[in-house]
Amino acid sequence: MNLAELDSDRLLAAFRGLLIGKGVLNEEELSRSGAAMDAASPARGGQVVARAWVDAAYRARLLDNATSAIEELGIYLTGSPPLGVLENTEAVHNIIVCTLCSCYPRMLLGYPPLWYKSAGYRSRAVRDPRGLVREEWGTVIPPEKKVRVLDSTADYRWMVLPQRPRGTEGWSEERLAGLVRETDLIGVTVLPEVL
Amino acid sequence: MSGFAPGTRVRVRDAWPELEGPAHVRTPHYVRGRTGTVLRRLGAFRNPEDLAFARPAATIPLYHVAFEQAEIWPENAPGDEFLIEIYEHWLEAA
User: Fold this and answer.
1) CATH architecture assignment, domain A41-186
2) Distance CA A110, CA A121 (A)
3) Smallest Cβ distance to B28: which of A143, A148, A153?
4) How far apart are CA A71 and CA A73, in angstroms?
């Protein structure tokens, strides 16, 4: 029998049945985990970023221990690996990759974009990071700014805290959150100045 | 193993366990044998190399280690760095 050729819904149902039948998991745990994954999205990342932009003390807590700072907002990452947040500044720009597989903060941001898992992204992000983001996303990182490529290899998951764009002074947290895109949280783009 | 303080220069072991049989290694190829600087300790986690095979797994300190990109690939911009999580048993004082 070749498992890869089986109908995937039937295979999933059989696997779930075995997990529950053998007492590895129960129905409630499975549905709680499914609901958490369904709630995860880049918008939640935007919500975290906007809070950090308007509240310096929150930003400090987020950079120190992101999992607990995110739980302050009522977003629970139970069962997820610890989350770390790296801050983009005038001096440093961060780009996240998982060269070994596809590690990504799924419990916060949801499933990664397909390109994040591609061999092309994973190899070029370390081999030519500046060229990659310039040619694929039009992101030009000034030569005087350090590029730090975070290769997510182990038991943490990582997210970028982008720089707040100029021209957003006095904006509400909700409006700020709406600016943040998935690509800003991975570090392949930067938020444009608001005119 | 006594642990590495932030700022310690460390060398990643030039080991290739995947050549000796099935292995689940979380240390990228391109930093094996390379020297970097410990940024901080991230905590301690059960060794994924054993967990992947359902073997008893020791809890091992995990560090964030920074490497100069241009020391690995000279075409990369000077000053740019890699920041990588590496388990203590892959590191030795440089």
Assistant:
1) Alpha-Beta Complex (3.90)
2) 19
3) A153
4) 5
User: Over the stretch A76-133, which tens digit does the pLDDT of each residue have?
Assistant: 888 789 999 999 999 999 999 999 999 999 999 999 999 999 999 999 999 999 999 9
- Is 80 exceeded by the pLDDT of residue B2? no
Residue A100 has its nearest CB partner, among B26, B66, B82, at B26
Q: Which residues of A are catalytic?
A: 98, 101-103
A chain contacts of residue B73, beta-carbon cutoff 8 Å: 127
- Helix then strand then coil, % of chain A, to nearest 5: 50, 10, 40
Q: What is the DSSP letter of A78?
A: T
d(CA B83, CA B69): 10
CATH class of B9-76+88-93: mainly beta
Domain boundaries, chain A: 41-186
For residue A155, what is the nearest residue in chain B, using CA coordinates? B45
ipTM of the complex: 0.96
pLDDT at A34: 85
Of A68, A67, A70, A84, which is closest to residue A150 (Cα–Cα)?
Answer: A84
Q: Which has the closest alpha carbon to A185: A150, A145, A138?
A: A150
Which of A99, A127, A150 shows the shortest C-beta gap to B83? A150
A150 interaction partners in chain B (CB closer than 8 Å): 82-84
- Considering all CA atoms of chain B, what is the largest pairwise distance in Å, rounded to the nearest integer? 42
Residue A77 CB-density burial (10 A; 0-12 exposed, 13-18 middle, 19+ buried): buried
Query: Which pair of structure tokens corresponds to residue B31?
Result: 């930093």
